[in-house]
Amino acid sequence: MRAIQLRAPASLDNLALADLPDPGDPGPGEIRVRLTASSLNFHDFAVVAGMIPTAENRIPMSDGAGTVEAVGDGVTDFAVGDLVVSLFFPEWNDGATPPGAFTKVPGDGIDGYAREAVVVPQHWFTRAPAGWSAAEAATLTCAGLTAWRALFVDTATQPGSTVLVQGSGGVSVFALQFAKAAGARVIATSSSDAKLDRLRALGADEVINYKTVPEWGVRALELTGGRGVDTVVEIGGAGTLDQSMRAARVGGHVALIGVLAGIAGPVQTALLMSKNLRVQGLTVGSRAQQLAMIAGVEANGIRPVISDHFPLERLADAFRHQIANAHFGKIVVDI
After folding, report:
1. What is the DSSP string of 221-262?
2. What are the extents of the domains in the chain?
3. Is the pLDDT assigned to residue 260 strictly greater than 80?
4. Number of Cα atoms under 13 Å in the Cβ half of residue 218
5. CA 195 to chain centre
6. What is the pLDDT of residues 91-121, one digit of tens each?
7. 3-state DSSP call for residue 8?
8. Do 78 and 84 touch, CB atoms closer than 8 A?
């Protein structure tokens, strides 16, 4: 089968197309999946760029979707022909994050889904939303579930809530879609007026260009009549956290997801304390949460926003497109 492997030292130039042995037939409790799509996340870029160390010849990509080709004895969740989508934490079923969960993240701790077929335990995948393509389903594993958890697991977004989303990447666009489906008011930020227009077309109630309005946290306060937002979907990290805390209401929730604007920096602890804020780090979610999200997108008719498609052999080009910030929504890899 064809696959992409990461040679040493890790870099985009060392992503190599390889011909690997076929994984064979599934054993008891296993399924064989013909993978046809993956999608890019910042976590995947961090691995292939060497920011997150991994083993030489690692097959990257945490997201994978495809069709069940065969099932082993005792498999009850799936049948041949089912469209399925992978889990970021394949051994996290429900409840609190288990110790050592990151050791089995596909594309990081173990081989991922930049390949044509896998044989894995059935609980490593869930069903895909009814009527979705594999390309659409592949957007959910990391970005979709992260946005879902930020809004509905770690807090209770509901009609009348106010949510602030940053930028127009996969997590932020999903968060906008999910929040609007829940009846929330959404404020969106971007450095591009053209992208702000697209965010407004997706349902954003208010938009802020953070280049022309660097104190966008203060502007968000003004847009909420001084109250502040209930939840900030924080993807920037150290470079944007202060503005996120300013934007939040007293007792508000900052879902700390990404590090695009820095991995470390000073924190205004007085602001954090005086506003009684809850700044909560999160990394994707569990199998039970993924199934709840899938039910949610089906009930609300939500479809992902896919910006671009790249073939498997051009995975490095897909990452270059990602880091150029030339996309809106998700970048999909067709396998």
Report:
1. HHHTTTS-EEEEEE-S-TTTHHHHHHHEEEEEEEEE---TT-
2. 2-142+285-334, 155-281
3. no
4. 3
5. 19
6. 999 999 988 888 999 999 999 999 999 999 9
7. coil
8. yes
Cβ atoms 312, 22 nearer than 8 A: no
Laid out side by side, the sheet with 185-190 consists of 206-209, 185-190, 162-166, 229-234, 248-256, 278-281
Angle 48-328-166 (CA atoms, 0-180°, nearest 5)?
90
Cβ-proximal residues to 37 (8 Å cutoff; 6+ apart), any chain: 64, 65, 66, 133, 134, 135, 137, 138, 332, 333, 334, 335
SS (H, E, C) 137-201: HCCHHHHHHHHHHHHHHCCCCCCCCEEEEECCEHHHHHHHHHHHHCCCEEEEEECCHHHHHHHHH
Domain 155-281 has CATH 3.20.20.60: no
Q: Which amino acid is at 51?
A: M
Sequence length of the chain is 335
- Closest among 295, 329, 298, 333 to 313, alpha carbons compared: 333
Arithmetic mean of pLDDT, 317-322: 97
The answer to whether the CB of 313 falls within 8 A of the CB of 335 is no
Q: Please give the Cα distance from 115 to 113 (Å, whole number).
A: 5
- Token pair belonging to 329: 């929504």
Name the residue with tokens 């990602």. 322
Above 70 in pLDDT, residue 261?
no
Under DSSP, is residue 20 helix (H, G, I), strand (E, B) or coil?
Answer: coil
**125-127 and 83-86: which strand pairing?**
antiparallel
CATH topology of domain 2-142+285-334: Quinone Oxidoreductase; Chain A, domain 1 (3.90.180)
Q: What angle do CA 127, 167, 240 make, to 5 degrees?
A: 115
First-residue to last-residue Cα distance in the chain: 11
Q: What is the pTM of this model?
A: 0.96
